UniProtKB/TrEMBL annotation:
SUPFAM superfamilies xrefs: NAD(P)-linked oxidoreductase
Transmembrane segments: none
Residues of the site described as Lowers pKa of active site Tyr: 79
Protein name as catalogued: NAD(P)-linked oxidoreductase
């Protein structure tokens, strides 16, 4: 039986730990966020994935404070969104997230999408590094970066190291992408694996668009688990950190009840589709993210 549990964590390049299951709050209305985040804690999650774009950093933080759980036991992520990333804009957005949450530090801050050209992306990364030096952000990463953007990062991380001093170009701790059996993104996940980068999977339930898919149904019957549970188990066993979202109390519990069964090798193989079918947005290839 699996050794994973709801308390399992992965160690990031920063040395900090990240819980292997997250709770996403994209499209969760601000006025229900506090309540559902509190429900997620009751179900055992200790990891909230928010973003400036979601407009629910403040109620997510309010739930964390109200929960009575020590701040250090909860992992909170937010993301800088900009149609045109830049140093100044990222600096002011970091300050805004600290103000919105009232936290002394953010566990993880991601650049939400690679929009704005090389200099903008480099400037945004530099702003994150400076905040990390000040202790405002513990771990850093990117979301929706294609392999080209990641290769480019390695170049400007070297440049920043020359400007800022040895070892100060930064390390990518986490990358976040839409990942599920119909969009496995092996090129990106291989790139990350080689560098010890934790991969988070967003839209891990394919936004509930495929519950009756013929690939899932045999596994649903075999394991007596829901399609969502099968998809989350696939994600965990691939080594990812899935971030399911739900505002439905029973589903919040269901999506955390995935540690009492395991998919075997054949089950995992049966979900290799080789497809590239995003259900959300795909800025890895959008015109605004041109290299
Ligand atoms: N970095 C990025 O660009 C990016 C983009 C998208 C998402 N994300 C992150 O990833 C998280 C999840 O992604 P997502 O919200 O796009 O999609 P998702 O988690 O794949 O799917 C959420 C949808 O599935 C439904 N659902 C949840 N649990 C279910 C279950 N057990 N059975 C059936 N349906 C279920 C939800 O409905 P109810 O809520 O009504 O229950 C909601 O409609 C987000 O909240 C966010 O944190 C990041």
């Amino acid at each position: 039986m699996s050794t994973l549990s709801i308390k399992s964590t992965a160690r990031m390049n920063s040395g900090y730990e990240i819980p292997r299951l997250g709770y996403g709050v994209y499209q969760t209305p601000p006025d229900v966020t506090e309540d559902v985040v509190l429900q997620s804690f009751k179900a055992g999650y200790r990891h909230v994935d928010s973003a400036i774009f979601y407009r629910n950093e403040a109620p997510s933080a309010a739930a964390i404070k109200k929960s009575g759980i020590p701040r250090s036991d909860i992992f909170f992520t937010t993301k800088v969104y900009s149609a045109k990333l830049s140093y100044e804009d990222t600096k002011s957005k970091i300050a805004s997230s600290l103000k919105q949450t009232g936290f002394d530090y953010l566990d993880l801050m991601l650049l939400h999408a690679p929009f704005g050209g090389r200099e903008g992306r480099k400037g945004a990364w530099k702003a994150l590094l400076e905040a990390q030096d000040r202790g405002e952000i513990r771990s850093l990463g990117v979301s929706n970066y294609g392999v080209g953007h990641l290769d480019e990062m390695e170049e400007y991380m070297k440049e920043l190291e020359q400007e800022r001093g040895e070892g100060k170009g930064g390390k990518i701790d986490v990358g976040q992408w839409e990942i599920h059996p119909w969009l496995a993104r092996k090129d990106i996940t291989d790139w990350c694996e080689k560098r010890g980068i934790v991969v988070e999977a967003y839209s891990p339930l394919v936004q509930n668009t495929r519950p009756n898919d013929p690939l899932l149904q045999p596994l649903v019957k075999k394991h007596n688990k829901s399609p969502a549970q099968i998809l989350l188990r696939w994600s965990l066993q691939k080594g990812f950190v899935p971030l399911p979202k739900s505002v439905t109390p029973s589903r919040i519990v269901e999506n955390a009840s995935i540690f009492d069964f395991e998919l075997d090798e054949e089950d995992m193989k049966s979900l290799n589709t080789g497809k590239y079918e995003p259900v959300c947005w795909d800025p890895t290839t959008a015109p605004g993210s041109r290299l």
